[in-house]
Amino acid sequence: MKPNCSNQTKTLDFYIVGIGASAGGLEALEQFFTNMPPGNSLAFVVIQHLSPDYKSFMPELLSKRTAMHVTQIKDGMEIQPGNVYLNPPRHNVTISDGRFQLKEHESAQKVNLTIDTFFESLAENQEEKAVAVVLSGTGSDGTRGCRAVKEAGGIILVQDDKTAKFNGMPRSVIMTKIYDYILAPGSMPDTILNYTGQTSPVSSKGPEEEKAEETNDLLSKIFSLVQQNYAIDFSLYKQSTILRCLDRRARICQQPTLEAYFSFLSVHHDEVENLYNSLLIGVTKFFRDKEAFEILRDKVLPEILKGKEESVPVRVWVAGCSTGEEAYSLAILFREYMDSAQKNFNLKIFATDIDSNAVEYASTGVYPVSISEDVSLERLNRYFIKRKDVYQVTKSIREMVIFSIHNLISNPPFYKIDLLSCRNLLIYFQPELQTRILASFQFSLEKSGFLFLGSSESTGAISSCFSTIDAKWKIFRNKGTKSRPLIDDFSVITTGVKVMPNQGEDYIRRLSRDTWEMEDIYVHLIEQCLPASVLVDEYGDLVQVCGDADKFLRVPKGRASNDILKMVPKDLSTAIGTAINKVKKEKITVTYTNIKTSLGADQVTIDLCVKPLFTKKSGILILVEFNQLAGGEQKGCVENFDTITKLHERINDLEQELQYTKESLQASVEEIETSSEELQSANEELLVSNEELHSTNEELQSVNEELIVVNTQYQYKIQELSDLNNDMTNFINSTTIGTIFLDTDLCIRKFTPAITREINLIEQDINRPIHHISHHLINEDIVSTSKEVIENLIPVEREVRSENNRGYIIKYFPYRTNENLIKGVVISLVDISKRKEAEEKLLKSKQRYETLINFSPYAIFLIKDNIIQLTNLEGVKIFQEE
């Protein structure tokens, strides 16, 4: 036994195989145990969805498939290898200190995830000696428990969904990509025995220093191989975590040593992907550590949103988001707080992770029904949509979260973060990397931002930069000191070669020289060749200034704006606005001449040329030129600019646009208000209906699974009874002994064909009273004798003869059930006619023999042991004479 410091329980020195099965699982279990040899050093625990109202025949059925002892679990029962344990109905099963613990289901209306509960307990207590097997079943029970087993270092086997009668449970685990094997049930035993029978490939042999040096060298090679494929360096991860993962993968690939596993890894590229996924497995769930989220709700969120304007964005960063549960939990928490405060802040949650598969899974927002264990029914109805066997987050919550791939080690951090959550990720890093990442976190936070870490993590070397909000749940607040990061050289990201600063600058300069020279040429050409002009987008926002156009532009007072109409003199504003509108509508070049405007103290006259430019990326851009056009014909619309006339035209255009916009807005507002009222009313009704249907559906789903399990067991029992009935029918038809089965009312239940020779019975006489039936037995009262046997419970046996002079032995026995209850009488009629004939022949032969002896003229004596046994008449005379 080895101690487990985390939960203060002992880990058994043998493997425990937890098997989760539901509908259709009986056939898979039979295939599994038929191929599992007895006498191994494994303990098997079968967890099924059982009906609380029906007796389970599983112990009886499985006992026929294995020589191991099959028993139902009792509270406090000690776990022993070489046994198969079955869960009892109405109870959840857990393990503690090598014994089973039973707990009754909390509520009949709540979905009881008995497989998840056991797998999580198995992972916590057995760690790397845990084996999880998921067989046929509906729903997703077992998926969350498999995550816990994988995190603890155990292995996971899933039934191939092509062989499963119900593939809901296997497919749910397969979708998460946390499995180690996908096999048919009959192939699983060999795989489990091969895995559990191996010694640790990373166990030390020989001198410790030499072994450590060899291990480090191999680890460097393995890290390099993974980095070549995924551009991620695991060299700064904790070596104990890495070695445990390598140990498990080597056993799965049946490699006896770490060297052999590296050789295997070099050849099999798919194993590199499996190793990469194993290293990145993260354990998370909705509202993990509910007490911590309550503190966030009561202490942190009010501080973040206090005094903030609704237009100012609230920025949250979830680093190492894994499959997204943490990010969505924070989104729900913020949504609830904003609803209660009747405010609507612009919330953006940046959820990042290095694992692209996890980010892709999280971005879909689809989770198994097992999240009902962590999310309240009210939140499920409000923030999730039930689709068959999954829940999907609502659009309003999904839009709050932005998922992206991000490497904390090499990528720069986000900035101006109000709340940063990074839970149970730093514990996998070496101390120097932890310090570097915490420094970047402190840099990314707002002056009074909050940091939320895992329960086993701390701020470490930069604790002086934070004040503690809650020591238990590791919630900290930034003190606002934007100190220099503690790691001076950020070029050392991993254990790779350090980049020299001077050499790096020269290298960058050499690589970029051509690019810089071309940019200089472009800028020079623009300045020299273009007249005074500006480039704006279709909304009039300034994009680029060319030539000597700055004399026509000025920075407006108040809030900074890029609107060209606010930056030019008023005399030009009307002309430019009118021209831009015309260009956007007609897509032609517009030229206005003789525009008088003031530039400082000078009065000048300019020509204005506005041209459309079309680009692939930005669409339409507009070039505004301030110049005197050259002579010749002008393309497009050329006219002398009359300020008063154009001003009135511009005002009329703007009034028409404004009137149209007002009418459209009013109509839209009225439609939205009407629709909103209708939708609110419908939504309230749907929420009530949805809650009722959700509860009813879960109950029906649970009952349906239980009935499927019960039905399968009964089908097996019916088959056994059918076989037994066939055997009995053949026996009755073939026996020469006549038998009648009577119930307590002396009605005929069943009879054999042999009895019909003396008792006049046909098939239609079943269920008729026996006294309605005639017989050929002389002086035999069947009815009274049967009553006497039922009353006295004493068997009766005697010889009788029939009217056709045949001899029989008739026997009356009480009909007893397995519970020793009397349910009638059994009458047997054994034909002894041949025996009677033989007895009569023997008697006649004896008489003739005696007559022959008596009339013989000689004295005959039969002597045995000096004693005369027999003599005839002549012999008697001799005795008399003497």
Account of the 3D structure:
This protein has about 900 residues and is of the alpha/beta class. It has 23 helices and 34 strands. Helix 7 (about 210-230) packs parallel to helix 9 and helix 7 (about 210-230) crosses helix 10. It is elongated, with a radius of gyration of 47 Å.
Q: Biggest sheet: strands side by side, in what order? A: 5-6-4-3-9-10-11
Please indicate the percent range of residues in DSSP E strands (runs of 2 or more): 15-25%
Number of strands: 34
Structural class determined from secondary elements? alpha/beta
Contiguous low-pLDDT stretches (5 residues minimum) are: 1-8, 484-516, 629-636
Helix content: 40-55%
Number of helix segments? 23
**Major sheet attributes:** 7 strands, parallel
User: Radius of gyration over alpha carbons?
Assistant: 47 Å
- Principal-axes geometry comes out as elongated
Distance between the termini: 102 Å
**Average pLDDT score:** 81
Characteristic key phrases:
34 strands, alpha/beta, 23 helices, disordered N terminus, elongated, 882 residues, seven-stranded mixed sheet, single chain
Give a summary of the structure in a few sentences:
The chain is an alpha/beta fold. The protein has 23 helices and 34 strands.
What secondary-structure arrangement, pairings included, does this model have?
Elements: E1 2-4, E2 9-11, E3 15-21, H1 25-34, E4 42-48, H2 58-63, E5 69-72, E6 83-86, E7 91-96, E8 99-104, H3 114-126, E9 130-134, H4 143-152, E10 155-159, H5 168-176, E11 181-183, H6 188-196, H7 208-230, H8 239-252, H9 258-267, H10 269-279, H11 290-305, E12 314-319, H12 325-341, E13 347-353, H13 356-364, E14 366-368, H14 377-383, E15 384-387, E16 390-393, H15 395-398, E17 401-405, E18 417-422, H16 431-444, E19 445-453, E20 466-470, E21 475-478, H17 501-529, E22 533-537, E23 542-546, H18 564-567, H19 570-586, E24 590-599, E25 602-615, E26 619-627, E27 637-640, H20 643-734, E28 738-742, E29 748-751, H21 782-792, E30 796-801, E31 807-816, E32 822-831, H22 833-854, E33 861-864, E34 867-871, H23 873-881
Helix pairs in contact: 3-4, 7-9, 7-10, 8-10, 9-10, 11-12, 14-20, 19-20
